Structure prediction request, 342 residues.
Amino acid sequence: MEFSMAPMEGITNHLYRNAFGECYSGIRRYYSPFVAVFEGARMKKRDLKDVLPENNRLPVIPQLLTNNSDDCIKACKKLEELGFTEVNLNLGCPSPTVTSKGKGAAMLRDLDDLRSFLSAVYGAFENTSLKISVKSRIGITDPGEFEGILAVMADFPLKEWIIHPRVLQEGYSGKPHTEIFCKNNLSKCKFPVAYNGNIYQLSDYVKAREVMDFSGNCVNHVMLGRGLLIRPYLAENLAKWDPENSKMQDSQSKLSQSDEKMRLRSFYERLTASYQEEFSGENAVLSHLKELAAFWMQGFTNGTEYIKEMRKAKRLPELDSVFKRLLVNEEVIIDDGNLEII
Prediction:
C-alpha cells in the first residue's frame, strides 16, 4: 500500500512538505494545494512557485482547480513544459467560495458537462506522456449519485481516481460513506483507485481495509490528510501493518516518547526557520505555526488544553514556551493500533 499527503490549502505548501520530508518518511507522493486556473490559463505566481521543481525536494503532483476545459488544457501544457509528468484535477473541494463558481465538487452536479470536460482534457493529452489523475467526492447531496459518477469516470483513461467518500453538502462532517466501495463495482475501472477520508490512526486504517476490501477493489493507495497533520508519523506506522496476520510487522520499531518528541521539535524548528525566511513579519509566521500546532496538540495527552494558551501568543518566544511545556509535561498518544477513533 502506498501513502500520499493530501493537498490542504494554506498548510501543505512546499515549505511544509520539504520540512516534513526531512523529519518523517512513509509518504511516496505529495499533492500540492490546488492551483487555481483563471481565464486564459492564468495561474498565480504564488501557486506556481509552490510547485516549481527548484522549490521542492520531494516529488510533488500539481493539483489544478478549473471548470474550463480550454484553460485546463493550456495549464496542463504549461506544467508539462516545466517537467511534470502528472497533473491532478480537483473535483472534490466543498468550499462555498469554490463551488459557487461551479468548480471543485460542484462539477459533479451535471454529469453531461463533466463528461464533456473530461473528454476534451483527456483527448488533448491522448498521445503525450502527461498523465492526468482525478480527486473527487461521490456526489452533491446523496451517496447514491456515485453510481452515475462512476459510469462517467470509467470511460476515461485516468492515471488514478482518488475518492473522498462524502458528498459536497457534508463538507468534512460525519463519517465517510465507505460502503460505496463495496456496493459499486470499482473493478470496472481500468485505472487504480485510491481512498481518502478520516484515517487518523492505525485503527481507522484497519477498519477501512475491512469494510472496503481494498485488495478486491484495486485500492493500492491511501491519501492522508488531517490525520497526518495530527500524527506526522502516521504513514510510517500504517506501513508496518500486516493485514494477513492482523498485527504490526516490526515489533522492534515501536514509537518512543523521546524519539517522537525530538522529531516533532525538529519539525517545528525547521518550519519556523523556513517561515521566517519566506514571510515578512512575525505575525505571518505565528499564524502559520499556530494553525499547525493546533493539530499537533491533538496528538498529546491533555494537548487540547494548551490550544487556547497557544492562540493567545503574540510573539514567537511565547508560542515556543507553550510548545516546550507541551513536550515536557505531556505524552505523545502513541498509535499502537488499539486506540479508539477520535
